[in-house]
């Protein structure tokens, strides 16, 4: 722009020069992107470390010819020098080993790769390599004389070869490749802290500009060079930065400082950090969104007169004995249930879901915001809502004792839980009670309680057990994930204790009927809209995903894991039992879960019907309908079902395959990010709860490396990496037997063997 202004005979200066003249220039200059003019001088003096990228036309030709492959570049969380790209042409991901082969790709980038000759194929790494440790004393200012691979990195890779022997499945060579170009940079803003060793001690208090390293929280992201005049002020802070470029002559990407989130390890800074890392939209709802809410606010109620337009095409179900059963403290109540005996001996069951689509109209500001957020995010100490609180916790929430709009699915079931018929209707309900899981369980178990509401829950319980048996017989998987509840102080929200979540029959009761509703609605909206139904699928995992776990169970326990179908897998998981170790089966199920593909939302017209299948649930067709307060997918399913039963016409956006594909792509990312942010929140709070305490708990070895191991602690539902250097100084000697998954450790005051799947105390 400056050059353009010169040719136009106008006065013009660069953004950097303009900011330099402002009062707060020293701080503001850190936030200006490192422009091309700042980097261009280096190209004449710096050696080119990385290969140039191929042109787009060459990459397209190569991919079409099958000599190159496109995919997403992922870096190992345990070894920053090892990446992988999954491509359909190969059973296993292609390994990308070393800086030169990854060629400036950053985890998440969409890349084009070229497979290396077979004599260069290698086994995946068995060594933990952390950039922060390996390149601890790197010079952030070194523009000249850099090499792609540091001497420390060469040494670390050579040591790995010495320490490892044996040839298990994980020790066998697999195809390797190199990145020849980037199709799309998926750079985002990154959270991290300044490496104190990169700050020159002589300038910590000065305002002289210097280059420092930002170490990202995400260990898969390389160190980022930042030019700053406030290095001393930024030390010990949690920072937000962005990457500006990664040129061929720099070992590391170059970026700039955006803002400080606060002191490291403080609750506010760490919570905001995890929200930013997982791209959670946490800003307050803007006025345009709040303007879409009913003007009556909390005074809104279902109209008294049934001639009011609000009652149009709604069934009056206020006389039914409906209740909700949720986690303790739940205020955004999406679902409620009822059951009653019919004159013919069958049972009427109703699942009643909050009628969110009554309040959120397609394409208005609130709908657009909900579509962007995709889901409510649950952290230990807070909830980031998809919808404004007025709707989520009041007007839509199926609270007890008040009339609420609902979308009801009503079935006639036989006493054996076979479906006779299903009916879908908009309704008005009045829940009789809001139970927590434990409250409902106590009530069901108390035989002195023989009122109609309690007996209705008992009927639901009986049917849910039969529904679950049918699912399991069909091959549904009973998988596991570590779940704990962090108890916090009511006033400060500081962590007080960590408890493992107890599983109750009432939890299964709710789950079974939500699954039944989701499956029934999926079939109904697909029947009405075969090209644009919003559904959810779970692809069968490739057999290679289970290779390693199968081999580990066979070698360590003599157990066989069969994976030819979900039913075969479910049955073989049932046999993975150790009578002396009650937790062992759960541990194996957690490991099996990690071998699975991720479930995903999709538009029905983009897949053939056999691909609709939900592998984990053993269901031919599935969607999400039962949580529209907290999931956008469910809100879209409500709109499609409403049109399918002729309640209201369908908005054009839900008839466009292209628009629905865009919605699905976003909500798939948001759904996963919400899960990861929730887990990160639990990990942080568990860490805070244990801070300064010596706690003796049993753990289980989940993974073994040549220089460390991963331990899972059931009591706290978290896993942690233990490096050999954490055990003693100097770092103990070790020998890793990859065939038997045993790490022998010898050092000062330590002589032990660590084995995969074994207990460690």
From TrEMBL:
Signal sequence annotation: none
Record keyword Cytoplasm present: yes
InterPro entries per UniProt: Dis3_CSD2, NA-bd_OB-fold, RNase_II/R, RNase_II/R_CS, RNR_Ribonuclease, Rrp44_CSD1, RRP44_S1
GO CC terms, sorted: cytoplasmic exosome (RNase complex); nuclear exosome (RNase complex); nucleolus
PROSITE patterns membership: RIBONUCLEASE_II
Coiled-coil ranges from the UniProt annotation: none
Cofactor(s) this protein cannot do without: Mg(2+)
Domain RNB stretches: 314-647
Subcellular location: Cytoplasm; Nucleus
Protein name: Chromosome disjunction protein 3
Keyword annotations from UniProtKB, A to Z: Cytoplasm, Endonuclease, Exonuclease, Exosome, Hydrolase, Nuclease, Nucleus, RNA-binding, rRNA processing
Organism in which the protein naturally occurs: Aureobasidium pullulans
SMART domains: RNB (SM00955)
Any Pfam family: OB_Dis3
Single GO biological process annotation from the record: rRNA processing
GO terms of molecular function: 3'-5'-RNA exonuclease activity; endonuclease activity; RNA binding
């Amino acid at each position: 722009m400056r050059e353009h202004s010169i040719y136009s005979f106008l006065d013009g200066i660069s953004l950097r020069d303009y900011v330099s003249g402002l009062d707060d220039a020293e701080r503001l200059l850190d936030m200006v992107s490192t422009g091309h003019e700042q980097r261009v001088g280096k190209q004449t003096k710096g050696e080119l470390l990385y290969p140039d990228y191929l042109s787009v036309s060459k990459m397209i030709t190569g991919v079409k010819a099958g000599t190159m492959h496109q995919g997403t570049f992922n870096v190992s969380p345990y070894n920053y020098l090892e990446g992988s790209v999954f491509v359909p042409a190969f059973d296993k991901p292609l390994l990308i080993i070393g800086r030169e082969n990854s060629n400036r790709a950053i985890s998440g980038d969409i890349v084009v790769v070229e497979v290396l000759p077979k004599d260069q194929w290698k086994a995946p790494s068995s060594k933990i390599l952390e950039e922060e440790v390996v390149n601890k004393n790197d010079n952030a200012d070194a523009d000249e004389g850099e090499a792609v691979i540091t001497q420390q990195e060469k040494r670390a890779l050579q040591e790995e070869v010495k320490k490892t022997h044996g040839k298990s499945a994980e020790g066998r060579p697999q195809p390797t490749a190199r990145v020849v170009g980037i199709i799309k940079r998926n750079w985002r803003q990154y959270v991290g802290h300044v490496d104190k060793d990169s700050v020159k001690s002589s300038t910590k208090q000065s305002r002289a500009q210097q280059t420092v390293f930002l170490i990202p929280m995400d260990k898969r992201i390389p160190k980022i060079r930042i030019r700053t005049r406030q290095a001393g002020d930024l030390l010990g802070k949690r920072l937000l930065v962005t990457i500006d470029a990664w040129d061929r002559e720099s070992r590391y990407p170059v970026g700039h400082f955006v803002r400080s989130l606060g002191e490291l390890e403080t609750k506010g800074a760490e919570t905001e950090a995890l929200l930013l890392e997982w791209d959670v939209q946490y800003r307050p709802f803007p006025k345009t969104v709040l303007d879409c809410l009913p003007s009556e606010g909390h005074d809104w109620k279902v109209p008294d007169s049934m001639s009011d337009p609000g009652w149009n095409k709604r069934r009056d179900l206020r006389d039914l004995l409906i209740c909700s059963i949720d986690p303790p403290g739940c205020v955004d109540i999406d679902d409620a249930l009822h059951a009653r005996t019919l004159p013919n001996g069958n049972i009427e069951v109703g699942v009643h879901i909050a009628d969110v689509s009554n309040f959120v109209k397609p394409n208005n500001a609130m709908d657009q915001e909900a579509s962007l957020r995709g889901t409510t995010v649950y952290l230990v100490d807070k909830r980031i809502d998809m919808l404004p609180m007025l709707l989520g916790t009041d007007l839509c929430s199926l609270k007890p004792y008040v009339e609420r709009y609902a979308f009801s699915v009503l079935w006639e079931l036989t006493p054996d839980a076979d479906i006779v018929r299903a009916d879908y209707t908009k309704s008005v309900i009045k829940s009789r009670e809001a139970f927590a899981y434990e409250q409902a369980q106590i009530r069901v178990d108390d035989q002195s309680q023989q009122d109609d509401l309690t007996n209705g829950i008992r009927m639901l319980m009986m049917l849910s057990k039969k529904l679950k048996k049918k699912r399991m017989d069909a091959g549904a998987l009973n998988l596991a994930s570590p779940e704990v509840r962090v108890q916090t102080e009511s006033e400060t929200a500081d962590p007080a204790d960590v408890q493992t979540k107890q599983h109750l029959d009432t939890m299964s009761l709710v789950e079974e009927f939500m699954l039944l509703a989701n499956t029934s609605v999926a079939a109904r909206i697909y029947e009405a809209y075969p090209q644009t139904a919003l559904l959810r699928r779970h692809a069968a995992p490739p057999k290679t995903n289970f290779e390693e776990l199968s081999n580990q169970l066979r070698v360590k326990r003599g157990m066989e894991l069969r994976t030819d179908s979900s039913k075969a897998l479910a049955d073989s998981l049932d046999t993975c039992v150790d009578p002396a170790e009650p937790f062992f089966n759960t541990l194996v199920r957690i490991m099996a879960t990690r071998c699975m593909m991720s479930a995903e939302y999709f538009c029905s017209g983009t897949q053939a019907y056999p691909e609709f299948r939900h592998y984990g649930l053993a269901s031919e067709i599935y969607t999400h309908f039962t949580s529209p307060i907290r999931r956008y997918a469910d809100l879209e399913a409500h709109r499609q079902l409403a049109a399918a039963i002729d309640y209201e016409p369908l908005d054009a956006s839900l008839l466009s395959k292209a628009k629905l594909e865009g919605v699905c792509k976003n909500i798939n990312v948001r759904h996963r990010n919400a899960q990861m942010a929730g887990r990160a929140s639990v990990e942080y709070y568990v860490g805070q709860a244990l801070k300064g305490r010596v706690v003796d708990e049993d753990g289980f070895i989940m993974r073994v490396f040549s220089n460390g191991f991963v331990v899972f602690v059931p009591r706290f539902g978290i896993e942690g990496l233990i490096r050999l250097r954490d055990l003693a100084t100097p770092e103990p000697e070790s020998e890793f037997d990859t065939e038997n998954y045993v790490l022998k450790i010898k050092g000062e005051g330590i002589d032990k063997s660590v084995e995969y799947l074994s207990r460690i105390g």
